[in-house]
Each structure stands twice: as structure tokens, then as C-alpha cells.
Amino acid sequence: MMTRRIAEIRSRGQGRRVLGGQPLVFHCNHYNYWLQKTVRLDPSLGMDEVIRDAAEGVAYAALSESCDELGLTSVADRLGAAADLFAHLGFGLVDFGATTEAGGVVRTPVSHYGQLLAAAAGAPFAQDQNLFDQGFAAAALAVAHGKLPGSYAVTGNVCQSRGAEVGEITLVPASRTVTPEVGLGPLARDPAPPRPTDTSVDEDAVLSALAGLDLTGNEEGLVPRFGVALTHHFANFYNRISFEFVRRMAGSGLLAEAQELLVDAGYHCAFNTFGGIMTSAEWDAVVRPQCATGDDWVHGMVAVVNALGWGVWRVAELDGGQLTISITDDYESTGYAAMFGRAEGNVAYLASGGVAGIQNLVRIGDIAARPSLDEAFYANCFEAEGSWRTAEARCAAQGHPRTELSARPLGRAS
Questions:
Q1: CA atoms of 408 and 190, how far apart (whole Å)
Q2: Which DSSP string do the residues of 269-333 spell out, in sequence order?
Q3: Do 355 and 323 form a contact (C-beta atoms < 8 A)?
Q4: Which of 84, 64, 66 is nearest to 8 (CA)?
Q5: DSSP element (H, E) containing 232
Q6: Which residues pair with 44 in a beta bridge?
Q7: 357: buried, middle or exposed (CB in 10 Å: 19+, 13-18, 0-12)?
Q8: Backbone φ, ψ for residue 402 (5° rounding)
């Protein structure tokens, strides 16, 4: 059994987890691809540097606190802990052996971002995909040598996403400004609503079964589960790049389109992650036997979501014309509130796509029949007439007690 030096992952709030003070959430390679593709659509926005800095910010904060918690003081021990964390969370393998305080080359023999986004892309990449790895490497070197974030800059990069056998990130000393991390953010004062009683799904049994699964990185530092590759990722990495993308698009006259693109990334997350879960052996063993109706499949998937660190989801309304999900301590709203204060509109973009995505898979795609999760099936579920969309939304970042998202079939007003 592998031994890694990892700080304790602790429960905070409702349905949330933190490591080194940083909130963690599970997401897969498909969402990681679609979100990164979305925010990089317009090169003039300069989002590559935002992605690198977001990665460096969360990694620096998590590694600093983790090393202190573990009592690690030497450069070697701190770099070892960084490599352990990278692998444990599913990002791959990283080697700092060719670095000193003056920088050097960080190697990634295995990289989630460098290798596994290709399964979602379906075509060769024109740009390096390992921006997260670059930010993580800069943070690890700064923490190891007792320096501030922004103390190293990337001057060279070789990425497996473009055919390299091994990733190589060249770092040199620098004096850059990295946005400080905000941690978990404001949490709900009131408990989540009680669980629905009109379903045969036993959420406690589902959560207990999922808790028994090993969702940490394997010997290659990867987490292959449910037909996808998972990462136990930093929630504020996602938040920072999503919200900064929206901010930079606000002056373009395409703000609504930018927000819809982030929701669309949520559709792809639901399609691949939720679809993979609902066609997995684990689902068949634990959840499917509890499902007598399509509604039960919705309740079953919501129960699984509550193991992902996204907050506590509850089915508030479910009938043939509407699904309303109430979310307590959702990571997008708490992150936005911590970064910027009160929001003017809904900022739960991923969750909006996820809520509608459940209905598209269950009601339109008949996921119970175990279809192939290919492009044709996606188009049939998410792009056909009558597909479900989030029609009403209010989120905790607007000042509401919790986030509530209602999905309806496209074109239906009520």
C-alpha cells in the first residue's frame, strides 16, 4: 500500500471538505477539458495566465498549511509532500529532482491535464493543456524554499497533450503578484432541508457505500472511476477561472453568452460524470436495486452528488414538468461571496448544468437502458427539442439562504 504524506481532509460546513484550508470537490477529465476550453476561447482575454495563477494560488495555500500541519521543514520533505499531494488528488506524478532554489525543470511523467483531457477533446490539441501543472509546480517550489507565491515564473513548457513523452516545466526566479486565496467562504447558518420521503432511495446507504471506495490517486497518481478520470480538485481553482472569465467578458456585450457557456460545461460534466456513474458497476450494486421509478433515479443521483463536496443537494420539487434542487453551501456561491461579496445574479453555473443534466439523462436519454455515452447520445439528450434547461435560479451569493435551481423542458414556461 502506498504511503503518502497528506494533511487531513476535514469536513466543513454541509457537504464540504477542505485540505490545508482549501475546499476540495470531485470533477472529471471531461469537465476539466470543457471548462478550460471555454475560458480559453478568446485568446485576447489572457486567461492562460489566470489559469496558471489560480492553480498557484490554491496550491500554495494548501501546501503551506499542509506542510506546517505535518511538521515538514526541509526542502526535500516539502517537495516530497507536494509530489504526494499531486498524486493523491489525481493530477498524476511530478518530479522536482532537477530543481534548486534558482529554479530548474519540473518533470511530470504522468499528468491528468497533459494526457487525459484528450479523451474529451477527440482531436489533437493546438495549445498545451497543463496550465494547472505549471501553477502547481511554481507553488511547490516557492513553499519548499520559504518564498512568497509568485516567486517563480514559467519560461518553458513541454506538454504531453501535444505529443511529448514526459511533461517538462521550466521555472526561473521572478517577482509576480498572485491573487491571495480566500478559503472556504461564508457557510449557511441554517441546516439543509430534510431529505425527501417520497423515494425508495436510502441516501445514507449510498453515501456509506461511496465512502468505502478508494477515490485517491493510484500508483500513477490518477483516479480512474465510473468510466472517467476523477480529480479531487481545488474548488477555488474552478471558481477563480470561471468568475474571472465572466468578468472579462462583461465588457464585450457577450456576458449572457459567456455565462451560458459555463452552464454548457456543466452539461458536459453531467453527461460524462453522472452518465458514467449511472452506468457503472458501483451504481448497479448499490443504487439501482433501490430504484423503482425514474424519480428514484433522480433521487439516487442526487444522493451520489452529496459525496462530491459540492454542498448538500435536496430534491425540493419533482414532477413531469419541473425539477427543483435546493443546495446548501454550494461551492460556487460560497466561493463567489468570499472573492467578491454579493452577486447580482446566479453564479452557480456548474450546478445549473448539473440539475438539468440529470433530467436529460433520466427523462430523455433513458440512462437506465445503459446507452453508449457518445456524441450522438449527447446530442439526443442535451440538444434535441424538449431537452431540459435551468429556467429559474437564485443562489446563496445573492443573499438567499441557499441556492435553488429549477429545470424544465426547453420551451415550457411553467
A1: 28
A2: HIIIIIHHHHTSHHHHHHTGGG--SHHHHHHHHHHHHTTTTS-EEEEEEEETTEEEEEEES-HHH
A3: yes
A4: 66
A5: strand 228-234
A6: none
A7: buried
A8: -155, 170
Residue 188, all three cell numbers? 449557511
Q: How far lies 165's CA from each of 84, 108, 161, in Å?
A: 21, 10, 9
pLDDT, tens digit (0-9, with 9 covering 90-100), for 170-211: 999 999 999 999 999 999 999 999 999 999 999 999 999 999
Q: Which of 36, 38, 409 is nearest to 259 (CA)?
A: 38
For 346, the grid coordinates are 446566479
Which residue stretches of the chain have pLDDT < 70? Answer: 1, 411-414
For 23-33, what is each residue's pLDDT tens digit? 999 999 999 99
The DSSP bridge partners found for residue 111 are 92
61: region left, alpha or beta (phi > 0 left; psi from -120 to 50 alpha): alpha
Task: Order the strands of the 403-409 sheet from edge to edge.
Answer: 312-319, 322-328, 403-409, 388-394
DSSP state at residue 171: E
220 grid coordinates: 500513477
DSSP code string of 247-258: HHHGGGT-HHHH
For the whole prediction, is pTM greater than 0.90? Answer: yes
